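Notes to self after the Tuesday call (sharing in case useful).
The group wants a holo model before anyone commits to mutagenesis around the pocket. I volunteered. Ligand is iron/sulfur cluster. Logging inputs and output together so the record is complete.
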Amino acid sequence: MSAVRSAAAVKPSSGLATLVLDGFGTNVNMCFQCGRCAAGCPIAYAMDYAPAQLIHALRLGMEDVVFNSRTMWLCAACETCTTRCPQEVDIAKVMDAAKILAVRRGFKPAMSSVRAFHQAAMANIKRFGRMWEAGMIVSLKLRTGDYFKDMDLGKRMLRKGKLKLLPSFTGSRRAGRIFSRVKSVEREEIEQS
Amino acid sequence: MRYAYYPGCSLHSTGSEFDNSLRAIAPRLGVELDEVKGWICCGSTPAHSVSELLALALPVANLGLVEQMEADEVMVPCASCFRRLKSGHLETTTRPEVAARVNRVVDEPYRGTVKVSHPLEIFSDRDMLAKIAEKATADLSHLRVVCYYGCLLTRPPKVMQFDRHEYPMSMDAVLRSAGIATLDWDFKTMCCGAAFSLTETDIVYKLTAEILDEAESVGANAIAVACPLCHANLDTRQSEIEQRQDKEYGLPVFYFTQLMGLAMGMPGAYLGLGKHLVDAEELIETATQAPAA
Ligand code: SF4
Ligand code: SF4
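Result:
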C-alpha cells in the first residue's frame, strides 16, 4: 500500500517527532490515526496506551506521556503494526525509539523487568560473543531480585540438557570490540546533535 | 549445494535439536552446511531495544564473516536471526549513510554480497520438494500438523520478502511433500509473546494458550515450528498453560526439520525428540515405520 502523501512533504510536528525521524528514520506525522496498528497488536490489551495513541502523543510532543508509558516496554516486536500500517509508519521501530530515548533522557523505565532483561542479555553477548542462556538467566535474577521465578522449569530444562552449564568464548573479543566502538560512535553523535 | 551456515545462539543451546535435525537431513537432500567460523550473536530483540547501531552491527559483522569464507549465500534457520541478518543486509545495501555508520564499528567492512536464506526457502524450491518426496519413505499418515510460522519469518514483508506474509505456505509445502498432512488454520503468523517468556510470562501464557486452543480446535495432533523461541513458548511452557487453563493439550511441538527427518526414516532419538518437554516420542512410535531408504 502506498502512502497518501509523500513522506518528505510531511514535516514532524514536535521535537519528539523530529528526534524519531532524525534518529530512527520514521516519520510519525505520516500517521492518520486509522487505528489499524492498535487493532492488530497482540499486546495492546496490556498496554496503557495503544500503539496509535503513543504515535499521537509523539506527534504532540507529550514527553511525559511517552517516556513514562509501559507501551513500548510491552512491545514484542512482532511487526504486525508495521506490516499493516497504510501510511508506512514503522511503528515497531518507533517502539524501539521510545525505549532508547526514554533511557537516554533519564526516565525510569515503566517496566523495569523488561529493561533488566535487555541489559542482562546485552551484557552477556558483550562478554561471551554468543548468548549464554544459563548465565543470562542468573544475571536477570540478580537484577530483578525475583530468584524463584521459573525454578521448576529451569530444573526440567537442565535435566533435558536444554541449558548449557558452561559458556563458549568464541567471538567474545570480536563482540567486545563492536560494543566499544558502538559506544564511542553513539557518544560522538549525541554530542554533535 | 553448499551454503554458509549461521546457527545462532539458540541452536547451540535450548534449540540444539533444530540444529541436529537440520544437519541430519541436509546431506540427504544434497545440501552441505559450512558453519561460519567465529560467528557472534545477532543481538536479537534486546539489541534493537537498546541501540539501533548495535542491532545492525552485530548481524552485519556476521555477514562480513560469510564474505571472508567466500560464500555468497548463508542459511539461517532461527527466525529471529534470519530477521536480523536480513535487516542488516537490506539496511546496509540500500542506505549508504547506514552502511558508512555500521562499517565504522565492525572489524571488516561488509561489501553487501551475501544472500540471506531460510532453510524453508531452500527446501520449498520445486526440485527440492520432489527430492523430499523421493526420500520420505516412513509412514506418518496419522499426523495432523498445523504449521506455525510465528512473527519474524514473514514480517515485515518489505524486509523479509518471504512467502505470503499473512498466510505463508512454504512449511506446509515441505511437510506435505514429506507425506505429512498439514491443516489450514488462522494462527500461522500470530505472535506467541516471544522474549516475554522470561519477564512478563503472563503475556506468553495468554498468547500461547490462544495458539494451542486454535491448534486443538482444528483437530491437530502436532505443531510444526521454525523458531527456537516459538518452540520454547509452545513446548516448554505448555504444561504450565495446561495447569492454568485446567485442560490438557498434550500437543507435541516439532521443528519442521525433525518431521522431515522422521519422514526420511530417521530415529526420533537421533533428531533430538527426547529434548522436548511435551512428549513427542509416543505420537511417533504409534506410526509403522518403513525401512529407511
Ligand atoms: S496503522 Fe499507521 S496510520 Fe493507522 S493509526 Fe497506526 S500508525 Fe497511524
Ligand atoms: S510490534 Fe509491538 S506494537 Fe507492533 S503489533 Fe507487535 S507488539 Fe504491538
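Two things stood out.
The radius of gyration of chain A is 19 Å.
The first helix of chain A runs from residue 15 to 24.
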